[in-house]
Amino acid sequence: MIFSRLAPLFLAALAPLSAANFPVVPPSDRVLTVEQVKTFWVTRLRSQPLPAKVTPLHPERNTARRAEIQRRRGLMEEIRAGHHDLAARLVCLSHNVDAWSRLGDEPKSDASEQRLIRLREHVAKLATLEAQREAAVKVGEAADRMVARGEEIQRLKDLLARQDELCG
Questions:
Q1: What UniProt keywords apply to this chain's record, in alphabetical order (predicted)?
Q2: CA pair distance 131, 10, nearest whole angstrom
Q3: CA 17 – CA 88 distance, rounded (Å)
């Protein structure tokens, strides 16, 4: 498969998937849509067991339980609002490559794989651009600090020169 040869290029493209800790879509021969992936995520998040309830011996569980409930609610709201559509599309295409193969339709599997490759290349380019933007911001901040230090040095030199004139 083409994907295995290009795998190192796509490591940066996996960040959207790992960052949010999405439920894993199980392998099957069912071809999915992006909406079906998002529905699966929301359903699975809603049905996963929560951390143990608070007991007199373990009152600290309350904090962990509340945090997990809030994390899940927030993630479900983000999924519904479309904030993770790119991740859903990546999962959908990846799943469908295997689903089409299981169904014995290699042309559709290859087409899905090509779309997956293009999408991951796009995500990798976006990640590269974001890294470059962050580096440029840091360089700009460093330049601003250098200008401020240069101005402070000049101010101190002027102050010393005035003191020398008064003393000299």
A1: Signal
A2: 15
A3: 8
